[in-house]
Request: fold
Amino acid sequence: LKNQELLQFLIHGKSSYKISYSVWDRLYKRELIQDFCFPKGKCYEDVLWSAQVFHKAVKGVYIDKSLYYYRRREDSIVGKDSKSKLSKRVITDEIPQIEAQIEFLKSVGEDDLADEVMFFLYQLLLNYYTRSCYNDNGIQNQLYELLDHYKNWAKQDIFKGKGMFHDAVLFSSLYFRRILIGILHIKQSRI
Reply:
């Protein structure tokens, strides 16, 4: 794959699979990655990192074969936060990294990919907020504020996509989930 195709592959994947943002499942030339560092003590740092590296790469090759085994340790930074529960790292690490990826994509002229990542972010926030109604973990209000912050994007930019029917279905899904979230938020604050 060539440069722009790599970024699209990272964001879209293929119909039968989607590659992850994780950096452990790839091999890199040293010259390609030597200028990129990870912030210490943060999770999800590979979201922005992968986009930057894929943008810088001249070409890449995908091999559909497992050649490496990834092991999670309970005491690792990832092991401490289970995907089954909402963690404050969603607010402190994951969302800021996705926002940084969106800004990076815009800065390199990939506005359409940035919009797709923004759609993913909004959908992720909706999912997290819905889950927080059942298991708050102290982040429900922050998630609601983020949803409120991005609601104008959801209303205005969702229609840039892939045809009127597709956009109408996506917008309806987001719109009705947003109404449901508003109702849940009001009920929660009355209790």
Notes: Helices lie at 3-12, 30-33, 46-56, 89-107, 111-132, 140-157, 164-190. The mean pLDDT is 77. The CA atoms of residues 36 and 105 lie 16 Å apart.
